[in-house]
Design a protein that fits this description.
Layout (H helix, E strand, L loop, with lengths): L2 H6 L4 E3 L6 E6 L2 E8 L2 E6 L7 H12 L8 E5 L5 E5 L4 H19 L21 E5 L2 E5 L1 H20 L4 H24 L11 H12 L6 H33 L8 H8 L2 H30 L3 H14 L1 E2 L4
Antiparallel strand pairs: 1-2, 2-3, 3-4, 4-6, 5-6, 7-8, 7-9
């Protein structure tokens, strides 16, 4: 059996190509995402709420106690409460029989369930009804096609307005500068006043820069990514240098030489290879390593730009299928 032949026996609409191929359809009023593998067929159900313990046990036992399905059909529920039914058979004819019997047994079992109920409202406008099945946020759901089209149009208009109003780089940089300093404050406080090097606190620096950029109205572009990377590495290094300078200043003061060390003197120590390697390398590398962790997290947020959202909506709209109610 091929994956395509397994999917076709459901009678659902096929979407995607090759490795990403799957099928959208409905069983007993529930949107169902069908996926095929060498082991058989997986049916992922969408509902208003996850089945509670009693409801899930009833679904699981309905297959388990069925002489035909017992060894071939398994119902599972993940941490998010999403119900998945796996069907395995030796050939296409057996798979078809098992699938039809699974639909019949499930339909009988779920009738009247209060928590595990089929969705009845559009995922976008939240109005009752819907005429289309679409995969949004990783879940197959009911929508109105007109709502999907409106969402696409709104995102396209937002991109055009961004171009017309400028990229917001100046506002973004100003916000990023402030946000980065705010993000660096906890690491500096822990390092200097509590004398603790807390690795993860340095990861807050790029997140602070990102949120500062965004809060002051900066548009998320490639410039945002470049800024956050460079500024975060600079600030993580600066926190170490400032802390060292303050420590040296205190030591000089204790020996009656207050004001004898300048900030640039401390900076030169960091750029003297033998001094850097002996005294500063470990902490600087750890600080920058933590900043890089934060950069990766921020990068995931930055890449969710308006263009990315539009591309995702276009893909969703292209794969959406009309609801065929039976």
């Amino acid at each position: 059996m091929t994956k395509e032949s397994i999917l076709r026996l459901t009678g659902f609409r096929l979407v995607g190509e090759e490795k990403q191929q799957r099928a959208f359809g409905m069983i007993a009023g529930y949107p169902v995402l069908a996926m095929a593998s060498r082991r058989g067929l997986q049916l992922v159900f969408s509902a208003t709420n996850a089945p509670d313990r009693k409801e899930f046990r009833a679904i699981r036992d309905a297959f388990k106690n069925d002489e035909t399905l017992g060894k071939h059909v398994i119902a599972t529920k993940d941490e998010a409460g999403i119900l998945t039914i796996a069907i395995s058979g030796k050939d296409e004819a057996e798979m078809r029989r098992l699938y039809e019997q699974t639909k019949l047994r499930l339909t009988e079992t779920v009738q009247g369930m209060e928590n595990f109920a089929p969705p009845t409202a559009c995922h976008i406008c939240h109005q009752e009804g819907g005429d289309t099945l679409a995969q949004m946020d990783g879940t197959l759901t009911i929508v109105y096609r007109s709502c999907l089209q409106s969402l696409k149009q709104e995102q396209a208009e937002r991109i055009e307005n961004s171009k017309a109003n400028g990229s917001g780089v100046i506002q973004g940089i100003l916000g990023g500068l402030i946000g980065g300093v705010v993000g660096a404050a906890p690491a500096f406080i822990a390092l200097h006043f509590m004398e603790y090097f807390v690795f993860l606190l340095f990861a807050l620096i790029p997140l602070g820069a990102y949120f500062g950029w965004k809060l002051l109205g900066g548009k998320l572009t490639r410039i945002t990514t470049v800024f956050v990377i460079i500024y975060s590495l600079f600030l993580s290094f600066a926190v170490e240098v400032i802390d060292t300078h303050l420590i040296l200043a205190e030591l000089y003061a204790e020996f009656g030489m207050a004001g004898q060390i300048r900030f640039m003197d401390t900076v030169r120590y960091y750029f003297t290879p033998e001094v850097f390697m002996e005294y500063f390398a470990r902490n600087v590398l750890m600080a920058m390593g933590a900043a890089i962790v934060g950069i990766f997290i921020a990068w995931g947020l930055i890449t969710k730009t308006d263009k990315g959202a539009l591309a995702q909506t276009e893909s969703t709209l292209n794969e959406a299928v009309p609801i065929e109610r039976v």
